Amino acid sequence: MSHLLNGQDYNQLRAFIVVAEQLSFSRAADQLGVSPSALSQMVRNLEDHLGMRLLHRTTRNVSLTEVGENLFQRARIAALDLGGAVAQVKQAGEKPARTVRVHTFRSAAHKHIDPIVKDFTDRYPEIVLDITLDDEVIDIVAARYDVALRIGEVIEKDMVGVRLGPELRQIAVAAPDYLKLHGQPRHPRDLVNHRCIRWRWPGRATPYAWEFFENEAWFSVTVDGPLIFSDKESALSATLKGIGIGFPVEDTVTDHISAGRLVPLLQSWSAPFPGLFICYPQQRQMSPALRAFIDALRTGVS
Known about the structure:
By secondary structure, the chain is an alpha/beta fold. Helices cover 38% and strands 19% of the residues.
């Protein structure tokens, strides 16, 4: 029995994959060049065809059902394989040779570039990856970068954004020695009475105001303390020394929490936000070198 998709099935499945990657109909619609309402209808038609709900939709959030997650994982791999097969035919006999200029948040480089860079450079010796590690949010087009890795909250609307990983969240943490001396905050607003290790976006004049979630809305707390860093690893090091309360991304401190070096605080007010994305300018024809690098990042292998 043949399981080949017809054109309509393929378009609906492609629409679903992009929505699942972005977890946003508006961002997915921008990427596909259709209206959000048309995209929503395509996904509903796919759900009707399958007789299964693939997405949970609210006015604020889109998330995958269990069935939707299973379909997304299998369909995404198949779509990447299909895209790769077509690209191989189009580029038969052609090796991608050029420089790819990459601007990346440090956390994204450690998590997504470091694991693939050895295999990638072995497979594509003609490609030079010119990588800038920098947490400043810059105009990558004006700065002549080909691609950037950054969190979803700071992607410009005219850029293509492709999800690299799950949602993230920041949590307040402190060393046990700090808590013995100063006690624990019971609500985020109690932080104004604590010593906090602050962080400033590179290129910004003022420190970041810590963001929390309560009653279906975000609110910020302007904290104070003895140290301000533009580097998150330095801020974490100071937190581990017991100098004050820090506010790192949760998955960077799980080992410290498990080992008892840090204590998580105020978790009820910590909500997830869009995680790491690949973003690049919209373009009719992508260079083979850039495509190879993006595919390697998305699949985790070169």
